[in-house]
Amino acid sequence: MHVVRIGFTPLKGARHRTHQAVSLTEAGPVGDRAFCLVDAAADRCLRTVENPTLLLTSASWDGTLLTTELPSGTVSGAPRPTGEVRQVDYWGRTAALEVVDGPWAAAYSDHLGRDVVLARAAPGEVVYGAAVTLVTSASLDRLSDVLGTAVDAARFRATFELDVGDEPARVEDGWVGRRLSIGTAEVRVRGLVPRCVVVDLDPASGVRDLRVLRALATHRRDDGEVAFGVDAEVTRPGRVTTGARATCRPLRPSGRSARSPLP
To answer: What is the pTM of this model?
Structure first.
């Protein structure tokens, strides 16, 4: 089993970019969702599901310079702290975010057609669920068969896509409660990842082009939510590169399996 794709974005909601390597800390992937856009009037973190044109934009962050590419052009610079902290709504919970100064607020306000500000987020502050998410080649292949067309892993915005060889679809569901070594890092798989209609959107254009959620609808968690992939917490910091080996072991001898088939 090995890593075939590493994906994350420094700007929440923007296009999910492929990376050759990532460092994992206890808080998650370094640079992942370090910034987000906030509705200036409602004090609400912008969601891709409500703002699909965010997928027309992409961002890169080297720890000093934030560069964003929008249909109108490229904006780059060093975000400047303002000292202004806003308590904003993020999926029903309050997130504390620091507004930063620079050209991004104007660029994204023009792109979205409403006033937004750019804010810096502490690791995990604007992350739904655990910091690391995983999908597998077997589950993606099975889903592609169901839909009759290839399904890009970027639709699921997972940190890692793993090639699991001849393992069956949904093999990752059986990893819940177990530890997974990936490169020099280790994670503990926490649970299945609930999905929304964002997975129906083309990951590069934001256009709704596939009925992915409907195809997954027969596989639901106990709470009734549609799930695909698993999320995990970092138990040993380390570095992961594309092609890195991944191995799974029980957290304890009585580790439970939650495997179930795709429709």
So the answer is: 0.88
